[in-house]
Amino acid sequence: MLKILLNPSYPIRSIIVVVCQNRYNVHKFPERSPDRTMKIPQAARSEVSWLRALIFTIYGTSALVASYFPLFYADLGLSRTEIGYIYAVGPMISLISNLMWSYASDRYRTIKKILFILLAGQMLMSFFLSMATQFSVIIFIIALYYSCFYPVLPLTDSIAISTANRHNKNFLSIRIFGSIGFAIFALLIGYVLSAIPSITTMGLSMIIAGTALFFTFFIKDQAASVARVNFSGILSILKQKELLWFLGCVFCLALGMRMNDAFLSITLHDLGAGKEMIGWAMLLSACSEIPVFLLLTRYGSNFKELPLLLLASLMFALRFMLVGMSDSATGVLLIQLMHGVSFGIFYVTAIRMLTRLIPAQFQATGLALFTIMWSSLSGLCSGAFGGMLFEHFGRENFYFAAMGTSLLAFIGFASRFLYRSKPKTQSSTTTTMNE
To answer: Model-level pTM?
Structure first.
């Protein structure tokens, strides 16, 4: 269940989860057999190629949902509050749908058939959304759409892991095509929607999902095999004060992050940006993560966790303050380059700290709790209240509120840092007095 519950919005993030899991012994994939031949048969190459094409296309849908669905709602005339409510539905539905479809894949020992059902469901719900105009109808249909959308990403990761192990290939050599797909689609979709008015957002959604559905026919089925959450360990984990403090700080930081995720496209649109500029903003955000992730994965262990988390919190606060103060779409676009030094530093360091705080037998449960705080619960709250804040108090105050939650997380991390340093200082003083 671990891979099912870890469902980050940007594709590169799940790669870093895998890297951190291997680096800090959260979850190790089977070792490659030394006696395997280095030559890959033609059939295996074909299977891997089709899987890469599937992953590339699926993350195109992710780019569409993250970047252009909010604009679709705005074009329908929905208020900012209503858009916030729609955004809040996703994190809530993801918890239920991920559990339901992961149970189905375990029960029937298949991932390919589940993917087929989910992608067909995306196409059908996109068609219904293209005809819906009333808020009550839209929120009902989008709930069904999200139930088909969220489980697809971790299920394809599971197939990629199994395929990489079976053919003696590096998992990242397959999974990186998701990151490439997200970046390329985020940019191209904006240009397509601007250049061809007859093509709608929901029309593109059906085309991309249909293409992914076509690729599904050519991949080899896998029986679901993922780490399961140990529910009996939840009470044991929740007794750890340091972990509760950590999750509380994560929740505060996530509120601002999710507020920005929900309304960045709307912000750019209100400042006069076209859909192509919104695509560039998503591209810059996604690309800015990569060098930070790679550097911290390699050299991050040379630095202590709390100072890095303090730095990330400050970068989040500065980033949101600048967006709130900016009065041009170009300014907001350039500010997205700070995504790497804010989110990138936080995410890798947070996963690293979490794996240190939680015993090995409860890692899946702990990471599930982290995902609930970072993605699900924070997304629900930021969507439900962020939309009202944006509509009634304006963009500037909306982003200043996001800055405030980041500073609150900074205070939480700083208090823990000072609390850890205090015993050492007292011990040093006591030693000096004894001498």
So the answer is: 0.79
